[in-house]
Amino acid sequence: MIDKKWSELGFIDEPIPANTDIKAEIKRMCKEKNAVIMAHYYTDAEVQDLADFVGDSLALAQKAATTDADIIVMCGVHFMGETNKILCPDKTILVPDLNASCSLAESCPTDTFEKFVKAHPDHTVISYVNTTAATKSLTDVVVTSSNACQVVESFPKDTKIIFGPDKNLGGYINRITGRNMLLWDGGCHVHERFSAEGIKLLKQQHPDAKVLAHPECTGEVAALADKVGSTAALLKFSINDDAQKFIVVTEVGILHEMQKSAPQKTFIPAPSNEEPHACNECNYMKLITMRKLYNCIKYEWPAIEVDPKIAEKAVRPINKMLEISKKLGL
Known about the structure:
Layout: H1 4-9, H2 22-33, E1 35-40, H3 45-50, E2 53-55, H4 57-66, E3 71-75, H5 78-87, E4 92-94, H6 103-106, H7 110-118, E5 124-128, H8 133-136, E6 141-143, H9 148-153, E7 161-164, H10 167-177, E8 182-183, H11 196-205, E9 210-213, H12 219-222, E10 227-228, H13 231-240, E11 245-249, H14 254-261, E12 266-269, H15 290-299, H16 308-328
Parallel strand pairs: 1-2, 1-3, 3-4, 5-6, 5-7, 7-8, 9-10, 9-11, 11-12
Helix pairs in contact: 2-15, 4-5, 5-16, 13-14
């Protein structure tokens, strides 16, 4: 039985015994329970270092679809846990804090999006993975920032498309592909806050640095970039490119993996337009802490559940994304 206090909090707030080696104990429990820890690049560094697998949304979905673990501990946000549950209905899917939502998912309420879709019945619906399971159930195919352009291009040029919820990613795809997709008016609270003027100033201070930007950024910011891509694409570019210095325009958590993968290089976080001297962090991703992770595995809660009727509809566009990605070698 779930403690009432836990339910109200959305996570387990139990003390950890003194002198506990938290990392060792987490690994022991995972081995005992046949659990695997997956973490997004935007979580805290210590969570990433403890995870069995670290990746972006596409890689996490691909890994979830193939793992033989009995329990998947998704160190990320709620929609990622839902995606895992939809792909692995017989597995236990844990997310350390149910409050770890997503501003993009929140910007696309299912009921209003459904009205929008019904108002354009001749359109194919492409939804970003950063949506709830219920919104995915209204979708023809799901995309991530790693495969969005390629998935869109897999449809004939004259296909009428609704793209949601990220208007910046949709606008970027329209510019790259020459499409004219109908865009839902949603955005990421992290990527919309980057300051174009602040980035220009950093470029003046570091003329030898290349700018890496996520396509969820505004068009004004993306236009300043030497490379626009998903977190995984930006990471790969930073490792393989000859440049020794990079201005990174995405959530600051990715800098940990960049620095680990290319320790000889310099990575500079881009500034916020709200706090010029502050890094841009995802408030939701940072809710995933070591203490919550420990308790989550110990008590096997919070567990993600998805209504079977919604899951039955939502799995189709997710599987279509995975099939297209595999076909394209992504």
